[in-house]
Amino acid sequence: MEAIEKAAAAVCRYHGWNERSVIGHMEWQPGKVDPRGFTMASMRKRVGDRLK
Q: How far apart are CA 35 and CA 2, in angstroms?
């Protein structure tokens, strides 16, 4: 989880994006089930906290 959080925050920082730009595969493509084990809302919060 921490690696995903760090990588997503780094990409957001590089592009000048905020945590709302972090999306899961299942949010973009119907029929996809990943990621599993956490919600994208919780990941966006973690990324947002890291971007502060």
A: 14
Q: How many CA atoms lie within 13 A of 30 on its CB side?
A: 0
Return all residues near 24 (Cβ < 8 A) that are at least 6 apart: 34, 35, 40, 43
Q: State pTM to two decimals.
A: 0.88
Using CA atoms, how far apart are residues 31 and 50, in angstroms rounded to an integer? Answer: 30
Q: Which domain holds residue 37?
A: 2-51
Helix, strand or coil for residue 22?
A: coil
Per-residue pLDDT band at 15 (split at 50, 70, 90): very high
